[in-house]
User: What shape does this take?
Amino acid sequence: MRGHIQKGWGNTHSSESICFKTSEFSLELRQGFQSGLAVGLGRSYGDSSINSDGVYFKVESDAHIEINQDEMFALCGADASIGDLERAAVAKGFFPLTVPGTEFVSIGGAIASNIHGKSHHRAGSFGESIIEIDLLTSTNQILKLRPEGKNSGYFWATVGGMGLTGIIINAKIKLGRVETSYALVEERRATNLNELLQLVREFDEKYQHTVAWIDLSGEYVGRGKVIGGNHAKVCDLKERDKKSPLVPKKPRKISIPKFLPNWFISNLSVRIFNFIWFRKPLQKGVKHLRDFLHPLDSAKNWNNVYGKSGLIQFQFQIPYNEEEYFYTVFNVLKESKIASFLGVLKSFGPCDSSLLGFPNPGWTLSVDFPARRTDLLPKIQILIEELVKINGRVYLSKDSILMENEFRAMYQKIPEWKALKNQIDPDNFWRSDQGRRLGLC
Ligand SMILES: Cc1cc2nc3c(=O)[nH]c(=O)nc-3n(C[C@H](O)[C@H](O)[C@H](O)COP(=O)(O)OP(=O)(O)OC[C@H]3O[C@@H](n4cnc5c(N)ncnc54)[C@H](O)[C@@H]3O)c2cc1C
Assistant: This one.
């Protein structure tokens, strides 16, 4: 047990409380507190990892990871990070099928958010690569959850369930075979949104991993760059790398000073950054998987560039054929003089069986803006109303502003999820601020 300050990545939500090790959990301990919440590495942006009226729990397995080479899976403690998993797997010639944009996400957090990666069009969400989860329930049982058969309902309520069904202790995760720790990448520029979307479609056909960056500044025409990559084979490498093709790599550690001044991110500074980024020479050839899949991780606390008031990320998903919505978003940003330097666009393939999972076939775009620009919130509310009309949705792991009625309109399987939550957590012990706001707990 220890004093703990829990913060969202956006630096807009925090709470001070006690944090217990999962091994300390007992019915007596539970009765002493109103509610509890498992937390990982604090990379969710808003209030999904915040529990203002209760305590926190952290899994402490010392990031335990075992690779089963014959059956091609990893058994991971939920506190291990995606980066730990990648390095352990790569050393043996394997790689996870789905990884997010940062390696600093815990396995527990990745399951609770049912994360998606640049490979969604081929591999689906993280939940689809999970063979088994060990879940500690509020009645102090450890349940084995699998995607099919007995307990599969609890499995798909826990995958994407934002920690509200219990504490994920361990998970068995499927791995893919790789010959090297490198990717063979290609990058192309597009001068407008139509070209950009077309390039993403082409890249999805060719590449296992695809992502686009949109320039959300200036004329907001949707110009940007698309990068795609496949796992490189030994024959693709330079002679000197062929001798040891599987090299686990740790991120460089350039720390951003704690809280730069608020003006550091301004319309002008972002516009200049985006101008340079758009013109930066295009990448082609072999790149280490770490640098290709997690480019932002070299700057460890980049969220500090938004100053003390923090940032809000609006990540939405829209179905194919609703691309007009992008222009609605661009117009709001342009009118409000909001330039965003992290406009990340991806395509989604088919959805899985998770009840609160985010991906649905279509497009997803994330837009960052400074939380101090509170004048933008009513406009984002209007964007959310428009999103509901076209059957789009907001990603819970990035959200801090959605209202319960909007959430209900976006996620149709909430009643099914709630029925399972009542069974597995009859006293409604697992709670978060987001869960309360959205009527989930
Ligand atoms: C730079 C950056 C890039 C990102 N890129 C992507 C991306 O490409 N794709 C994507 O899908 N997401 C992405 N995310 C979001 C991130 O993957 C999710 O927010 C993820 O849940 C964070 O995991 P965490 O370990 O930090 O968990 P936390 O932020 O600590 O918690 C997040 C949620 O997980 C629950 N949780 C954590 N551990 C457990 C556990 N052991 N048992 C049960 N519940 C648990 C918490 O209760 C909470 O609801 C990104 C975030 C950042 C900051």
Observations:
- Residues 315 and 366 are 4 Å apart (CA to CA).
- Residues 193-206 form the longest helix (14 residues).
- The mean pLDDT is 95.
- Residues 9, 37-44, 48-49, 59, 78, 100-102, 105-106, 108-110, 112-113, 115-117, 162-163, 167-168, 296, 397, 432 surround flavin-adenine dinucleotide (CB under 6 Å).
